[in-house]
Amino acid sequence: MKVGIISMQRVGNYGSFLQAYALKRLIEDLGNDVVFVDIDASETNKKVFLKSFKFRRYIFKRLRYGRKGKLVSQKYKEAQAKYLNLADRKMTSENCDAIVIGSDEIFNCDSQGAWKITRERFGYVPAAKRVISYAASCGNTDITGASSEDVEIIKTGLFSLQAISVRDQNTAKMVFDVSGFSANKHVDPVLVYNFKSEMASCAKTVFPAGPYMIVYAYRGRINSRDEIKAIRAYARKKGLRILSAGGMQAWCDDYLVLDPFEVLLYFKNAACIVTDTFHGTVMGAKFNKPMAVFVRESNSNKLIDLLEHFHMESHIVHNVNNIAEIIDRENDYSAFNRIADEESARTRKYLKEQLSI
Q: For residue 18, how many other CB atoms are within 10 A of its CB?
């Protein structure tokens, strides 16, 4: 079949790219042709960008890293064009036999948020014969953030889905509250797809001479003096360079300019990971890394759900003074690896069943 994916594939973010690419490859492995279908973003995306300038320390590094940030953005665009086949024009559901909605925060319910609430985003795609979701998330939103008009739009979309799969319990509750349906629950596709051939293609990737820590967060979000002090103290004690990936953290030793598959390699070869994002946690766990995870109010629903499902609550930073203890704790990933294998099998079974009808 020709399968269209409605996702966050145009977002300039490693996690958004990797989940879109992984889902594409999983569907292609079933013998399907895959294209991406676009959704419209509103201008409120600019609010996040402007907010990041409130933190003024490290001004000279900010200027230098700012130039690197442009190169990172270019890496995103090149990867999106090369690996996701994204065209400059808007890509539609025309001629798709089936549509898969997911993963990422495609079910975001905030009427005032960065993404317009449309019937298509929640499942109403009349051009396709079959429409399902896979590991869709509403993030930290719920139905209380949607206007009464948007609730009806969401309901129309959900009632159009032949199968509903979500990524976390908060989204499952939203689906039930709106539609009365009980959703399947599956993990993010980055946890399912192995990326071995993609990482093998990065043979020319250059790594630092010595051991390093990866700090993975949205731009400027790790900005508490106490957090920075604790992370730096740990890195100095262990002789680690502090490298930021994804969003720039001006206090780090360097800001990495990498394509998405090189980021996976850097995670794989890191001494440890410090992150406050969902996909930073996913990548750290995927490679069984010593890791400290800061949970923010903006991502607590999906991040705590992930950590609890894989029995990884011990990685949560409740007190910045305990970072060393958390990272140095013996990392037993046996439960994670077992559950990841089980979830991988469930994912492939679900997609095969739903896209073979």
A: 25
